[in-house]
Fold:
Amino acid sequence: MRLSEKAKNSPASGIRYMFDLAGKYENVINLCIGEPGFSTPEYIVEAGASALRDGYTKYTPNAGILELRKALAEKIEKENHIKADPKKEIIVTTGAGEAILLSLMATINPGEGVIVPQPCWPNYFGHINTVGGELIPLATKEENGFIPTVDEIKAVITENSKALLLNSPSNPTGSVIDRKKLEKISEVVKEYNLTVISDEPYERLTYDGEKHIS
Structure:
């Protein structure tokens, strides 16, 4: 089988590299994958089993079951203060990874730049490579809480820049961008007509009084 050049040049996951490396040592503490240390609650397990028994085993609409989209619309309006039409503005995906990839496929043309604050989740590299985009790294500083500043964002913007990928709360730094900083970033986004892809799977994992703002 002859692989495509894109497949051959797709960056490997640094997380998997660490797993392979750790396998060579004894007494290693595993802090690699953010999986919960508890079982899925029984009522969720039972709901899934009941759905299978009730015949929910067929293809769903491309955007997801409408009842689920309506529930998601209620959630994001109540918790995130965002109004979205469940019929036109919400798509259900199999995880955040697919959501990010589809977002990039829908917005990024080959060669267009995606600004990614770093340190970051390493799968962003593969996602951007898959759609043929150019990853534009934006190094953040510890003294700024690993949050990109307006000046840092402006410094990496080129004529080729199309999107800004934000992750707050951040994996792996844990940084949370507050409302005031987000408002300043939004001004830059509007000035340069950037698309924002906001990755927010850790919205409820905040500590020390930090508050997630979508």
